[in-house]
Amino acid sequence: MRLRQRNIVIFGETASGKSSIVNTIAQSQLAKTSNDAHGCTSTTQRYPVEISGQRFVLIDTAGLNLGTADTVPATKAEKQLKNLLRERMSSRLDGISLLVYCMCSTIAPHVLVKAYNKFYSEICQKKVPIVVIITGLEKETRMESWWDTNREKFEGMDFADHACVTVLWEHPSFPDNITHRIRESGDILRNLVSNKCLDLAVDDGSDLAVDKNWLKQIGGRIVKRRQMTN
Predict the structure, then answer these.
(1) Which of 14, 121, 166, 215 would give a disulfide with 39, using CB separation of 3.0 to 4.6 Å?
(2) Element of type H or E holding 207
């Protein structure tokens, strides 16, 4: 038996900060990001990372509800995500350990509900944990206060946890309070992934292989003894 690879699928609307979440967790600019409202991730991207000695694979996906000016049309982005989730949910060796829904603090509630129902309830059938990350809170004196004010938007949805963060990349020109929130957000996201990621054991045939080898050895000894007594 062995632990299955910890795959973390990150999805959400375009420009919600999915790729920036990858970089914040990894503490390195692995994923390409964009400062405008258009998506910069057109295909599924995999980023192996390590957190406190544990290995994870962050899977970045194309933004949803993209318009014609964006990198990927909306229907194509949704199809890509559906295919990815179905493929991973049906895989015995390479499944999903955690779903991460990324959203801007200004998102319309109906968009949140639609994404939750379509991708988590219908496709994943609520069989894996899901968390929600709210981005764009660098100007909040206390980022968690956003959740205190808006928690009613999530009623009826079964999120394992949440994180209120900024995913800005640290820059010398930023004031100290923004820099503090950026560093705090990195710690929050890495703890969220480490604590909520599901570990699943997979039978890779190693136990069976040991049993077969053991039987082969015993069988050989029996044959040898019979030869000696005849």
Answers:
(1) 14
(2) helix 206-229
